[in-house]
Amino acid sequence: MNPNLAKRNELLAQKTIAGLKSRNMDGYYAASKEDALKIALGLIPEGSSISMGGGMSVHEIGLSDALKAGNYNFIDRDAYEDKRQAMLLAYDADFFLSSVNAMTDDGVLVNIDGNANRVSAIAQGPKHVIFVVGMNKVCCDVDAAMKRARNIAAPANVQRFGLSTPCASKGTCFNCKSPDTICCQILITRFSRHPGRISVILVNDDLGF
């Protein structure tokens, strides 16, 4: 992360955290990945059951490794032969970990999913949801957030998964109906009816896609 962006990111994060609060969600600012890890672990009591989607940001701050090594019931989807069983366990977990494909600077979260296990768990099920979000994902409004999710996050993810879609080869969204499309379900989270359920850790770094 360019050090010249640190103050800008801190000020933008303060605005975003105020927006999250107005939407019944909690926001935190971490000046580094290490600080983000400390905040996340401070939110998760030992002994908690924890699941997650495929969010790269959670891995990048070291949170998934810390939970696997700690006194937690970490539901590791990769360790399950039956992936569906692991996905279903997520709905009754104490905590679900994720990132966002994009969010607005006033606290609206935008997520796109292929199988919908991630967006459905964000919407309902787990008692708590913690998002780890690099400041590179904060956009000025919902339209910009949607464009980011469709034209930056989606192409990068289909390339990561080795899928065959127009955006994988061209690098931008074609609004396709390819059998491999991951843009099947779009979730816009603009308010949480349950206080304390959703927490967002904004990190002064470029994380994920």
Structure description:
By secondary structure, the chain is of the alpha/beta class. The model has no long low-confidence stretch (mean pLDDT 95). The chain is 38% helix and 21% strand. The chain has a 6-stranded parallel β-sheet with strand order 1-10-7-4-2-3. It has a 4-stranded mixed β-sheet with strand order 8-5-6-9, with helices on both faces. The chain has 8 helices and 10 strands. The radius of gyration is 16 Å and the shape is globular.
Compact summary:
By secondary structure, this protein is an alpha/beta fold.
The number of strands is 10
How many helix segments? Answer: 8
C-alpha end-to-end distance = 15 Å
What is the CATH architecture assignment?
A: 3-Layer(aba) Sandwich
How would you describe this structure in keywords?
single chain; 209 residues; alpha/beta; Rossmann fold; six-stranded parallel sheet; four-stranded mixed sheet; 10 strands; 38% helix; 21% strand; globular
Produce the secondary structure layout.
Blueprint: H1 6-22, E1 26-30, H2 33-43, E2 49-52, H3 56-60, H4 63-69, E3 73-74, H5 83-90, E4 95-98, E5 102-104, E6 109-113, H6 117-123, E7 128-134, E8 138-139, H7 142-161, H8 166-170, E9 185-189, E10 198-203
Parallel strand pairs: 1-10, 2-3, 2-4, 4-7, 5-8, 7-10
Antiparallel strand pairs: 5-6, 6-9
